[in-house]
């Protein structure tokens, strides 16, 4: 009970009570301590809709550094490599599809052309490994992504361990395809 | 008023299921299609690969070709390029399947680098 009363007493200050009555004493004390600004009123205008990016550009706000300052980590490197491999594979598929549409001869003709180069088995293996690498990587990492989509393996430790396992699998798939 | 297709509220949930289903199907179909080349697998693969490539390219364009960096028109042009590439890819791959020897046999031809044996496999 005493506590309660003390609390209530603390809420009102003696001088504040004086200011309520706008006596010279009260106003003077408060006017010096906290200058009350002159209040003007404007008619309400709803804020003009402006796209977030366009407003920032209009105000010439700089973009915070991100790619230039953040340390490369295996998580982000594996992720961007996955995307890059996907883009390369899209290039392969586009070349295959577009080639089928516009090139004058069928596939056998171009295969004969490649055979005519008479490359050594080592060169052929190396070339196939280079061509198969994006596929091996994208395939292995794609399975890792599907694993994540089952809501498993999402701790940092598991991301790292599955990442290393994926790299091993990608190399294995690439070498297997190159040997075929 | 900037309007990008991802800024309109849309529920991605159903599309996500289709995308992941496509991914899972591809993981299974690519090895099997290469092992047993046949026209059915080739057709399904052509459609699934094109869809997968479309969603991938769309994600790249939406995330990198942004209005803030490139202005209002270039992102739309980039999406148009993605649509064109997708259409050409699908048309080309289906053409390869029905007017030439097909996706998987074609791959083996190029990969095995030798004349076609009687049954078309390696």
From TrEMBL, chain A:
Query: What pathway is this protein said to act in by its record?
Result: Carbohydrate metabolism; tricarboxylic acid cycle
Offer one example of a GO biological process linked to this entry. mitochondrial electron transport, succinate to ubiquinone
Superkingdom, taxonomy of origin: Eukaryota
Q: Which Gene3D superfamilies match?
A: Fumarate reductase/succinate dehydrogenase, transmembrane subunit (1.20.1300.10)
Localization recorded for this chain is: Membrane
Keywords, A to Z, come to: Heme, Iron, Membrane, Metal-binding, Transmembrane, Transmembrane helix
Q: Gene encoding it?
A: LOC112050411
Q: What is this protein called?
A: Succinate dehydrogenase cytochrome b560 subunit, mitochondrial
Respond yes or no to whether keyword NAD is given for this record.
no
- SUPFAM superfamilies per UniProt: Fumarate reductase respiratory complex transmembrane subunits
Q: Does the keyword Transmembrane helix apply?
A: yes
Q: Which residues cross the membrane?
A: 85-104, 116-139, 159-179
Automatic annotation (TrEMBL), chain B:
The cellular location(s) given in this protein's UniProt record come to: Mitochondrion inner membrane
The keyword tRNA processing is assigned to this record:
no
Q: How does it sit in the membrane?
A: Multi-pass membrane protein
Pfam families to which the protein is assigned, alphabetical = CybS
State the UniProt keywords alphabetically.
Electron transport, Heme, Iron, Membrane, Metal-binding, Mitochondrion, Mitochondrion inner membrane, Transit peptide, Transmembrane, Transmembrane helix, Transport, Tricarboxylic acid cycle
At the highest ranks, the source species' classification is: Eukaryota, Metazoa, Ecdysozoa, Arthropoda, Hexapoda
Q: InterPro entries in the record, alphabetically?
A: CybS, SQR/QFR_C/D
Q: Identify this protein by name.
A: Succinate dehydrogenase [ubiquinone] cytochrome b small subunit
Family from the record: Belongs to the CybS family.
Record keyword Thylakoid present: no
Membrane spanning stretches? 21-38, 44-65, 77-98
Please describe what this protein does: Membrane-anchoring subunit of succinate dehydrogenase (SDH) that is involved in complex II of the mitochondrial electron transport chain and is responsible for transferring electrons from succinate to ubiquinone (coenzyme Q).
């Amino acid at each position: 009970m005493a506590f309660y009363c003390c609390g209530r007493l603390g809420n009102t200050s003696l001088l504040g009570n004086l200011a309520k009555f706008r006596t010279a004493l009260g106003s003077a004390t408060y006017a010096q301590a906290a200058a009350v600004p002159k209040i003007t009123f404007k008619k309400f205008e709803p804020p003009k809709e402006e796209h977030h990016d366009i407003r920032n550009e209009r105000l010439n706000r700089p973009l915070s550094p991100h790619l230039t300052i953040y340390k490369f980590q295996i998580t982000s490197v594996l992720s961007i490599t996955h995307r890059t491999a996907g883009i390369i594979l899209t290039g392969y598929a586009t070349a295959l599809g577009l080639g089928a549409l516009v090139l004058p001869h069928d596939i056998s003709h171009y295969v004969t052309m490649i055979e005519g180069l008479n490359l050594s088995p080592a060169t052929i293996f190396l070339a196939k490994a280079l061509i198969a690498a994006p596929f091996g990587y994208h395939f292995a990492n794609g399975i890792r992504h599907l694993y994540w989509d089952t809501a498993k393996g999402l701790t940092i430790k598991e991301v790292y361990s599955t990442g290393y396992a994926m790299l091993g699998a990608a190399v294995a798939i690439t070498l297997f395809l190159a040997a075929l | 008023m900037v309007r990008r297709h991802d800024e309109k509220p849309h529920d991605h949930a159903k599309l996500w299921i289709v995308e992941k289903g496509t991914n899972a199907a591809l993981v299974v179909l690519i090895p099997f299609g290469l092992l047993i080349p046949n026209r059915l697998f080739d057709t399904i693969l052509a459609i699934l690969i094109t869809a997968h490539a479309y969603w991938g390219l769309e994600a790249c364009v939406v995330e990198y070709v942004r209005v803030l960096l490139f202005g209002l028109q270039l992102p739309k042009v980039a999406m148009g390029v993605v649509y064109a590439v997708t259409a050409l890819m699908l048309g080309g791959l289906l053409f390869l399947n029905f007017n030439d020897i097909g996706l998987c046999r074609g791959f083996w031809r190029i990969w095995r680098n030798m004349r076609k044996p009687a049954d078309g496999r390696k």
